[in-house]
Amino acid sequence: MDEKLIERKLARLARQSGGLALKFTSPGFAGVPDRLLLFPGGKAAFAEIKTTGKKPRPLQMSRKKLLEDLGFKVFIIDHQEQIGGVLDEILTT
Ligand SMILES: [Mg+2]
Questions:
Q1: pTM here?
Q2: CATH code of the domain in which 50 resides
Q3: Mean pLDDT in each 10-residue stretch from start to end of the chain (93 residues)?
């Protein structure tokens, strides 16, 4: 499945779960995850979306680690079936 379709589905399901999956870009700081996930109670995480079967680039993996070292969860999603589990994990943390 194409990255754009997975991303749109993530945004829709996040809204249905009471949160937001905002497009995230950081000018001058490449490789940050595609979406910022925000949920009630101050819950925040990130998601890097890939077309099914594709892997994150090395820069994307190093940005992931940077954010994880700050204590944020960063999910790699390359399949629409992963979305429900990701949202559950954020909501139950
Ligand atoms: Mg991506």
A1: 0.96
A2: 3.40.1350.10
A3: 96 98 97 98 98 97 98 98 97 91
